[in-house]
Design brief:
The complex is a heterodimer of chains A (199) and B (400). Chain A has 199 residues and is of the alpha+beta class. Chain A is built from 8 helices and 4 strands. Chain A has 2 domains: 3-118, Roll (Ubiquitin Conjugating Enzyme), CATH 3.10.110; 128-198, no CATH class. Chain A is 45% helix and 12% strand. Chain A has a 4-stranded antiparallel β-sheet. In chain A, strand 1 (27-31) and strand 2 (38-44) form a beta hairpin. In chain A, helix 6 (160-171) crosses helix 7 (176-185). The longest helix of chain A has 16 residues, at 3-18. The radius of gyration of chain A is 18 Å and the shape is elongated. The N and C termini of chain A lie far apart (48 Å). Chain B is 38% helix and 18% strand. Chain B contains 8 helices and 14 strands. Chain B has helices at residues 32-41, 62-70, 89-95, 125-134, 136-171, 180-243, 256-265, 377-382, and strands at 21-24, 29-31, 58-60, 72-74, 83-85, 248-253, 272-273, 277-278, 285-292, 298-306, 320-327, 336-341, 369-376, 391-399. In chain B, the strands form 4 sheets. In chain B, strands 7, 8, 9, 10 and 13 form a 5-stranded antiparallel β-sheet that branches. Chain B has a 4-stranded antiparallel β-sheet with strand order 6-14-11-12, with no helix packed on it. In chain B, strand 1 and strand 2 form a beta hairpin. The chains are: A alpha+beta (199), B alpha+beta (400). The interface between A and B is medium-sized, with 21 and 20 residues.
């Protein structure tokens, strides 16, 4: 990695470590190895959202050309959100693409992601299925997102109804992640989910 | 080790100290290289506020550049007290002797023979142990090689050192720190230094003397000014007393003998006047006059109306009572006192103003009112009116 990228990440690393957000356990960055090319981010689910109480981990890859090109960021923790792929964790956020500016830092990126979690943009979706549910069945969306937060990110809101539906599919030999995905996609309609899984 | 930079001097792209700072049209600073690199790669916009920006919109910010050149920081490493220019901080930290070198410590993934050239990379402790066991031969070779290098280096240094030593001995062979010569030369140096100090002190004294002289001059000027002010104050007080005397003027006519002689010699030309005084504040302005009568035997005493500051507001002709007294210095009974009323017909009580043809009339009414034969000269001389060659005349002008 070239000198400028490393130098910068080192400085940013210090910045995040010193930041208020770290003190409030809101965002965090860790090294993965010694190279400074790969980092692990952590965001707390913003309050008053279905993600509240969850801890979301991010994979951050710093390109050679950083900060002239944005870092590549992906959710490692599975999340139900219109702008984040429920399968791959890929993020649709303008500043990680064409709106990137060299003055932005890991800290601003993580804070922007936190803001994105609090205010989704369903008209510019990454995950069309989630976006559709968000627009058409906001209540189901909120329950699903909250449930995912509970299962994958350690959130507090359990949902026994959803659990039992998943158990039904597991009994049919379906893996739990797959079952959860299918049920979430079909607004927790067991019949349609089953139909899709076995078609 | 990284330093803390004043945010003003930080480039938002590399987060380092600005190198060849460039100022954008929108007022942000970046390193020359950073902002050019950014504009080359990405959309033509400012990295901070995303306003449109092209290379034409960049200017070298030499003011900030100079400021940065003047900044220095102290090395934060324990034991190092180097003060380095801000721009060279990173270079310093990479070479600072007092860096805590992580490579020297025990680490799980770096070969301890790293310093002498082992370039193998290991992933964990087990691999490291394995590497150490397997690489004994290589490590020994590296060690002996570095040992030979070190010996060579030491020898070179020794050679250089002995040459330098030889050179100094040739240069001043007699130099022995304990000898008298050394003492003399030390003393001589000391004398030179002291002389230097002495000269500087002399210069200081000279400068102080000059300062003193200047101060003295200032003081002289100031005392002159104070004197002038005192005189002015006296004049002002006199002027005020003439306004606030309420028409009573005590005329101490000094040098009487001399004046009398002059009056006798040229009875028509020699007249003495009092300064103008006012009958009240904002009243009529009048003055007294003394001269000798044409027969040279009597003193004449008159008053003149003068042009005053309040003439516009007064009623003309003047109407009132005038008392003229010659005061006896010891016996009040012998005071010569004469009273007279103003007469409206007399020219003497008219307002003294501008003439008909715009010709300015003198500030005194040429016509006087009083007594041509107020008292005989003989009486004045014989009846003890003169004290200290001074006679005292009291004039009272009252309005009615």
């Amino acid at each position: 990695m070239n000198n400028i990228a490393t130098q910068r990440i080192k400085r940013e690393f210090k910045e995040v470590i010193k930041s208020e957000e770290l003190a409030k356990c809101s965002i965090k960055v860790d090294l993965v190895g010694d190279s400074y090319t790969e980092l692990k981010g952590e965001i707390a689910g913003p309050p008053d959202t279905p993600y509240e109480g969850g801890k979301f981990f991010l994979e951050i890859k710093v390109p050679e050309t950083y900060p002239f090109n944005p870092p590549k960021v992906r959710f490692m923790t599975k999340i139900w959100h219109p702008n984040i792929s429920s399968v791959t964790g890929a993020i649709c956020l303008d500043i990680l693409k064409d709106q990137w500016a060299a003055a932005m830092t890991l800290r601003t990126v993580l804070l922007s992601l936190q803001a994105l979690m609090a205010a989704a943009e369903p008209d510019d979706p990454q995950d069309a299925v989630v976006a559709k549910q968000y627009k058409e069945y906001p209540e189901i969306f909120a329950k699903t997102a909250s449930y995912w937060t509970n299962v994958y990110a350690g959130g507090p809101n359990k949902n026994t109804d959803f659990d039992s539906k998943i158990q039904r599919l597991k009994d049919m030999g379906i893996e739990s992640d797959q079952a959860r995905g299918a049920l979430s996609t079909f607004n927790w309609d067991l019949e349609r989910a089953t139909e899709q899984l076995f078609s | 080790m990284l330093s803390v930079i004043n945010p003003r001097f930080e480039c938002s792209i590399c987060l380092n100290c600005l190198k060849d700072p460039m100022l954008t049209r929108c007022g942000h600073r970046f390193c020359y290289e950073c902002i050019h690199e950014w504009l080359k790669r990405q959309s033509q916009s400012c990295p901070i506020d995303s306003l449109p920006l092209s290379i034409d919109g960049l200017f070298p910010d030499n003011y900030t550049k100079r400021e940065i050149y003047e900044q220095t920081v102290t090395c934060l490493n324990n034991g190092c007290d180097a003060v380095v220019p801000l721009l060279e901080v990173d270079e310093h930290y990479t070479s600072c002797k007092f860096n805590k070198n992580p490579i020297n410590g025990i680490s799980d993934n770096i070969c301890p023979f790293h310093l002498i050239g082992c370039k193998d990379i290991v992933k964990n402790k087990n691999e490291l142990l394995n590497h150490l066991v397997m690489g004994v031969h290589r490590h020994v070779t590296l060690l002996s090689k570095s040992h030979i290098d070190l010996m060579n280096k030491i020898q070179n240094k020794d050679n250089a050192h002995s040459k330098a030593l030889e050179a100094t001995q040739l240069w001043d062979a007699n130099k022995d720190p304990n000898s008298e010569k050394a003492l003399m030369s030390n003393l001589y140096e000391r004398i030179v230094v002291l002389e230097q100090i002495n000269i500087e002190k002399d210069k200081d004294i000279e400068r102080l003397n000059q300062n003193n002289a200047m101060k003295d001059k200032d003081i002289e000027q100031l005392s002159q000014t104070v004197n002038n002010l005192i005189i002015e104050l006296g004049q002002t007080q006199n002027a005020i007393s003439l306004v606030t005397c309420n028409g009573v003027y005590v005329w101490r006519f000094e040098n009487f003998t001399e004046s009398l002689k002059l009056m006798k010699e040229k009875p028509l030309q020699t007249r003495y006047y009092t300064p103008g005084f006012y009958t009240s504040s904002a009243g009529y302005k009048v003055c007294g006059r003394i001269n000798i009568s044409t027969d040279n035997r009597n003193l004449s005493l008159f008053i003149h109306m003068m042009r005053g500051d309040y003439d516009d507001t007064l009623i003309w002709p003047f109407s009132g009572q005038i008392t003229l007294s010659l005061i006896h210095p010891t016996n009040p009974i012998q005071n010569t006192c004469l009273k007279m009323q103003s007469s409206p017909e007399s020219e003497a009580f008219r307002r003294c103003s501008f003439g008909n043809n715009g010709i300015e009339v003198p500030p005194i009414n040429p016509r006087a009112f009083g007594y041509t034969e107020f008292i005989t000269v003989d009486e004045v001389l014989q009846n003890g009116y003169i004290k200290n060659d001074t006679i005292v005349i009291k004039i009272i002008v009252e309005c009615i």
